[in-house]
Amino acid sequence: MQSIDDVRHALLAKVVTSDNPRDILKAAEIKALYSKLVTLDPSERGAYGKAVNDLKVALEAAIVAREAALDDETVQSLDVTAPWDVNTGPVGLLPTEQGTQHPLTKELEVVIDIFTRMGFAAIESRQIDDDFHMFETLNFPKDHPARDGYDTFRTEEDFIPPAHTSTMQHRILKDGKAKLEAGGQIASVSYGRVFRNEDVDATHEHTFYQCEGVFVSETATLADMLGTLQAFFEAYYGQTLKIKTQPAYFPFVEPGLEFVIEKPAALGGKTGEWLEMLGCGMIHPNVLRAAEIDPAKYQGFAWGGGIERLVMLKYGIEDLRYFESGKLAFLRKFVS
Length: 336
Ligand code: DAH
What we know:
Number of strands: 7
CATH architecture of the largest domain: 2-Layer Sandwich
Strand content: 15-25%
Largest sheet: 7 strands, mixed
Bound molecules: 3,4-dihydroxyphenylalanine
Structural class: alpha+beta
Oligomer: single chain
Distance between the termini: 62 Å
Radius of gyration: 33 Å
CATH class of the largest domain: Alpha Beta
Number of domains: 2
Mean pLDDT: 91
Number of helices: 11
Strand order of the largest sheet: 1-2-3-7-6-5-4
CATH topology of the largest domain: BirA Bifunctional Protein, domain 2
């Protein structure tokens, strides 16, 4: 039979290398010490019992220290640069719930999927840009009053977190020029976050999402644009829709229009209840010229609008602020 001291040394040595240190509390050696206790003369039991107890306290402390060391090893082996599903092994430290996509991300994917199936290339829009792309190349001359409508933030260095995805148009046109001149077409959508210095309420946010389309060819017409947009909205809402347009002013299109749909009955609409969904028009010759595309030879259309508005109509969401609120009760409704 080992002495209490022997057992103590042996078990403490085991703890520091064990992967499951807590199991050592159930070691046969400890059971043997307890078995011996009941065989002792009652006068010896007090001191012996206390010594066994001290051993367990020391062991417990060593186990806690070992467990902490094991946790550290696990954290050190976590690769923060790895794809999202790589660190979720038998770690036990990471949340077991994985979380899900934000409803806007999910819906944006639906939107992009529809346009890519129509043949549009999709690119993410920038989150920091400059006056040249946000205004100048879009036919907003310096000091033009239409600039005021965009409530732009500016950094101290005079960069702009873009107030619309139209900020990508010039790049799309410039990049597509060669394809156009080789007999092809420019067909791109750009999507992403935009920012406006606005008072926030149920229909205004400082941060929201837009999707923008640009199409240029030798023959593009306004009818092509209306057909494209109607096909998109019908695909997104899964039903036929009545559409109309009304005139609107945007410096980068001529004519400029608002694309309006009748709110579908399935989504709680009444006949004659119209909703403005986005801005659109034929690309202004000055915008084509800025990208060195000859407006006498090529023409195109463009549109741009908010993603939240689409999603709010689809799901009957009444307050835009929910999207950026991080409210789990709201977000969980979109978990599929
Ligand atoms: N950029 C405009 C806005 O945010 C929307 C827009 C209107 C985009 C007309 C376009 C367009 O491409 O042709 O208010």
